[in-house]
Amino acid sequence: MLPDDLRIIESQLGRAPRGVVDIAHRCACGAPDVVRTEPRLSDGTPFPTSYYLTCPRLASAIGTLESQGVMREMEARLHTDHDLAAQYRKAHEHYLIKREELGHVEEIAGISAGGMPDRVKCLHVLAGHALAAGPGVNPLGDEVLKLVGQYWKGSSCAPGPVAAIDCGTNSIRILIADVDEHGTLIEHAREMRIVRLGEGVDSTGEFSQAALERTFAACDEYKTFIDAYGVKSVRFVATSASRDVSNRAAFVQGVHQRLGVTPEVITGNEEAELSFLGAVRGLQNLQSPVLVVDIGGGSTEFVLGDVSERVMIETSVSVNVGCVRMTERHLVTDPPTRVQIAAVEADIAAAFDEAACTIDFSKAKTVVGVAGTVTTVSAMALGLDAYVPETIHGSTLSLGQIEELTGVLLEMTRAERAALPFMHEGRVDVIGGGALVLRELARRTNPVSIQVSEYDILDGIVYRLAGTGS
């Protein structure tokens, strides 16, 4: 549970939450919508509702169902549908087992909630249980959620502009945008600052003071954007390194003081879904399966999915090779030596072999590359006199182009790379390491060319924050 969650829950309920243990489920926008509660409150009161629904929009939609007599109809079916009744009793038993994990309360022993196992007294309880436990556990809770449908779709849980911040190993980026009623993203601001938060982490296990100061300075700047655009909701997603470093508390506290939000290390599954959702936005004629590859500073993420009817993730994996990590570990001279390059190639090949245990590269009919390495190499292939996102987005890179440009970049000195008109100053030192990762991707997926996307996890976060459920 994040520190901001209790504040959000209090706003949802209109009162201070009681007995919250953790977040049992989150809305598509990232906010809590079901909390797990203690079976005995701090004042000694027994509290049987282990999964408590907090989302006001969902609660309102369920209240409408209750007013339409859905509870009576469901309860009547329990007396005639023996399979349904058996499943409902299992849901009751599951509820009791999960609550007992939090402690035994004699006064409510054997009593679950919502009317289970024989009656239907509260659809909110059944829906909360279904969200927390997942599909197939509470049959009537699943029915409630199906009847409600995508209650978040088409309007925002926090009306007005929203902000997504992605803090990676190399850069910190912000996107401020609205999503209209048609699901179209209306961009207000998109900024990136190279802060090298992960500088030296591979060897020291902590964020350096200089890296923290650079990151906090960027946060101060982003706060002015957030205020200027009247942002209603902010989500800050951080690199997994922020979970593992020894001075994590300093990072979390510094961000929270400046932005009022807590850096969140999301699960690999959610990161994959958000990255995929953002990356495919605005690209035309995509053939499924689509492989989205995000080459970051410390890691590279692979997501295989389908976009033929709606976005569906098949599988995903992350490996620990990225432009910063490879540069710091091996590419230490200017320009790097053949021995150093060979060491990077060996690390990358091993990482791709690891990824291939999860991702079948041969299945991809479309490959989409995102993040600064891919877009910078595309700008180089296009011969641009400046970095032009509109031109880069939707461009393609062949294996031959990537092979040639990777070789050129590795032979250049730092001064020569810095002189390239499209090269961001923060990418000058690490582009060689990133290009080697990109080259391995092109080799593994050849003859499919790589389609370049300027959109990524930031766009996916905004869609979710805006409550579109895309």
TrEMBL record:
<dbReference type="InterPro" id="IPR043129">
    <property type="entry name" value="ATPase_NBD"/>
</dbReference>
<dbReference type="InterPro" id="IPR007511">
    <property type="entry name" value="DUF501"/>
</dbReference>
<protein>
    <submittedName>
        <fullName>Unannotated protein</fullName>
    </submittedName>
</protein>
<feature type="domain" description="Ppx/GppA phosphatase N-terminal">
    <location>
        <begin position="176"/>
        <end position="466"/>
    </location>
</feature>
<dbReference type="Pfam" id="PF04417">
    <property type="entry name" value="DUF501"/>
</dbReference>
<dbReference type="GO" id="GO:0016462">
    <property type="term" value="F:pyrophosphatase activity"/>
</dbReference>
<dbReference type="Pfam" id="PF02541">
    <property type="entry name" value="Ppx-GppA"/>
</dbReference>
<dbReference type="InterPro" id="IPR003695">
    <property type="entry name" value="Ppx_GppA_N"/>
</dbReference>
<dbReference type="InterPro" id="IPR050273">
    <property type="entry name" value="GppA/Ppx_hydrolase"/>
</dbReference>
